[in-house]
Amino acid sequence: MKEWRLLIESSQKGNEESTLKIIQKLEPKIRKSLYQTDFQERDNLEQELRIKTMTIVHSFDTSNVPGFWDWLDEAK
């Protein structure tokens, strides 16, 4: 989890290598999602998913993520 946080924060600061690592880590999930679509639309949808993913990554507030114990207390 710490690795994700560091990658996100680094990507938000403009580090292209971190951005590429995030995309590579999410690539299997993106491809799996594309199998549910028409073959002709996959290339466009893949690009759209990557763009949407990076939009979310760049707007994600890593300082507002609860820890495990916070989550557990909230779940009670």
Rg over alpha carbons:
15 Å
> How would you spell out the order of helices and strands?
HHHH
Q: Please estimate the helix content.
A: over 70%
Beta strands, count:
0
By secondary-structure content and strand pairing, the structural class works out as mainly alpha
Largest sheet: none
Low-confidence spans: pLDDT under 50, at least 5 residues?
Answer: none
Please count the helical segments: 4
- What percentage of amino acids are in beta strands? under 5%
Q: How confident is the prediction overall: mean pLDDT?
A: 87
Oligomer: single chain
Shape from CA axes? globular
Distance between the termini: 23 Å
Task: Give a summary of the structure in a few sentences.
Helices cover 74% and strands 0% of the residues. It is an all-alpha fold and 76 residues long.
Throw out a few tags for this protein.
0% strand, mainly alpha, 76 residues, single chain
Provide a descriptive summary of the structure in words.
The protein has 4 helices and no strands. The radius of gyration is 15 Å and the shape is globular. Helix 2 packs across helix 3. It has helices at residues 2-12, 16-34, 42-59, 68-75.
Secondary structure topology:
Elements: H1 2-12, H2 16-34, H3 42-59, H4 68-75
